[in-house]
Amino acid sequence: MLKPKAESHADLNPVETSEWLEALDQIIEAEGPDRAKYLLERLLNKAANNGAAPIARYQTPYVNTISVEEEVPYPGDREIERRLKSLVRWNALAMVVKANKYDAGIGGHIATFQSQATLIEVAQNHFYRGSINGEPGDLIYFQGHASPGQYSRAFLEGRLTAQHLANFRHELRDTPGLSSYPHPWLMPDFWQFPTVSMGLGPLNAIYQARFMRYLENRGIIPKTDRKVYAYLGDGEMDEPESLGAVGLPVREKLDNLIFIVNCNLQRLDGPVRGNSNIVKELEGIFAGAGWNVIKLLWGGPWDALFAADKSGMLLKRISEVVDGEFQAYKAKGGAYIREHFFGKYPETAAMVENMTDEQLGSLSRGGHDPVKVYNAYRRANESNGKPTVILAKTVKGYGMGDGGESRNFTHQAKKLEEQSLLHFRDRFKLPLTDEQAKSCELLKPADDAPEMVYMRERRAALGGSVPARRPKPITLSAPALELFKESFTGSGSRAVSTTMAFVRILTALIKDPALGKYIVPIVPDEARTFGMESLFRQVGIYAPMGQLYTPHDSDIFLFYKEMVNGQVLEEGISEAGSMGSFTAAGTAYANYGAPMIPFFTYYSMFGFQRVADFIWAFADSRGKGFLMGATAGRTTLSGEGLQHQDGHSQVLAATVPTCHSYDPAFAYEIAIIVQDGIKRMYELNEDRFYYITIGNDDYAHPPLPAEDIAEGVLKGIYRIRTAEAPQALLFGSGAILNEVLEAHQILRDRYGVSTDVYSVTSYNELRRDLLETERWNRLHPVELPRVGYLQTVLGGSDLPIIAASDYMKIVPDQIAPWLPGRLVSLGTDGFGRSDNREQLRRHFEVDAENIVAATLSRLARDGKFDPSRAASAIQELGLNPERPEPSRA
After folding, report:
1. Which site from 429, 668, 674, 704 is most exposed, i.e. has the minimal number of CB atoms within 10 Å?
2. How many whole angstroms separate alpha carbon 666 and alpha carbon 492?
3. What is the pLDDT of residues 354-406, one digit of tens each?
4. Is the pTM of this model over 0.85?
5. Contact at 8 Å (CB) between 277 and 62?
6. Is residue 295 helix, strand or coil?
7. Do the Cβ atoms of 712 and 718 come closer than 8 Å?
């Protein structure tokens, strides 16, 4: 029987406690820490079984995870590496200061790289692999604000010139410049991953590591021990995306993933956690999730102090200090440290009584000690079955002195006073005269200098320079249109949705012998909603451990089938996570030499609106693939209501330069777009991707018209109904094209008005063509003016145009400047409602009756139809002209 509980922290038997602790020490000394960990785990299990489970602890003492006894000697030449690192530091600082000296306000960041220079340079000399046996090497997400450091090293390596560095943040000059942050779109041979929109890097790195294993388990790429490194700021970890997926790499045992969190304790305005401790907080989060946590807090000069701490008071004192105080210690120097840190207790004060203030000020943090850093990387690379996070404590603005070291303003520091430049020179023993330092002259030793020889040898041994983007040529041919013949024959009397039409196209692609293995279906837990469950049985759901259970629906044909080499990425309820997979897949051609073709199918409302920042970064990454906005259209998705009904994703898609968006109505349109998209992206190597909206409205799909309409489908418009003497033109898109076709019949049969009908697959494509044409004409005033595709199709017609879609009126309004006074847009501005399609389309005034009314009203205004007849028609059609405007209803 259990005794009554005593105070949880009271030591009722100190002698017994001491005996237990001594026994533990003996086990560690005699048999090692692994044996001790095993025994402790057995004891914890036994205690839990007997009702004495201890309180869960995910924080350990505030010391380095790797003890001095566990460290291995540093394998490199410390002195040469110090000189090399100092050169990188100086050039990174000089390029920013000089850029702002001659172009005030151009910006840039100095302090971030100075805080992480040791973390980067140790890895550059000993860990980052540019290639592995001819295969792509490690993938590295560099911290965006530290980009000058990467430029500086590339300058020493000869990959960038002094002119490049002189044109930092000057990308539009006659000579080559450097982008502000990592941007593959702007520097396609250098950067791999855009990271400076904070929070995107951590999540994308997780899904990159996961997709690497996906490719290996499916046999697309060979298995290697390559790693994904992600350098993150401690302030960045407040972004929800940074920590939102930390459980996934634990579940999937992604020991190929290493996070390095640069804990310099400062964000843009001030301390990350002034009143607490960010390292402890992050340790608890990551350890609780199941990561391997390596704390890298204290440099070598602290080792002797910890060894001398027999009373435990130094550890006690360190554990009391909040980050705001740690920042002050570094900002105010050794005398302040002596008084305010060590001086609190007699025991700690005595420990440093023989040390000078200068020595106290030089007590380094772990992230600045190459030996400690090397051992942390080594331990991380040896991790088996777990992702690793290194929590590296550093000083923001390290070496900048009064110009920014550990100061609140340091993140924004772009200029340094001359005295600070001289201080930096002296601190890092740089071979610069006063005048050279004051003018921020770049340093680059001769090619045969020891530092340069050493640097080249190390990078050659590790497989080449990083960062570097080295995409292999894609040798993939698009399928013939014959592959989609089912889409071209029409559905006959059978009513199907465009979503189901797409699923058949996707199925055909997966079955194709040449392309099938490259198709990556991605879905955030809505496969059954979209009618995609047939893929479960056909190609399986990816699960790195296979299926460890018998699914309850295993007795039916389309059961939930998980496989180690499954092809479908079922991401759960996570659009952001799905975008991480889409990004990894859509850039696999560049990062792995594997031309994967991702199809990410999701509720269209929860795409651009929710993950627009990820999509922008995907475009920056030169990503390829298809975003499939399913259940699209504000009136097509019935019943779901305001939060689910999408009427604006086509507007948002127009903002991304490399996104080509379409709102198709029929199966053959989707097939033409997908086939041409694969051709452009993977055969012609164009850097673009697609957004295609598909709905769940079932209706009959016609066969491909006899005439060649493929060009019109791709460029955005083609005629689908022709009248002998049209009085107006009707434009329709997506499911609303059916309403337009019905309006066409009503106008003809009841009101004697003939109209031509056009399927507009993409207003965005039409607008881009018109803008390009307009610009060419503006810049070539002596040449014959060009004509845009829209005008070519309309053939000089000046008839009024009524355009209806399931999206906001601004979508067709994009082409209004080129149709002066002619365009009447009908759309779905406003919040959605829970009701059926008939009621929704009547509410938003995009049903056939409203299209008829808009046409008659416009003709009446133009003197082409009797106004009184138009007014009576509105009543006949059951419309209330006095009802509230739907966008404000």
Report:
1. 429
2. 12
3. 999 999 999 999 999 999 999 999 999 999 999 999 999 999 988 887 766 75
4. yes
5. yes
6. strand
7. yes
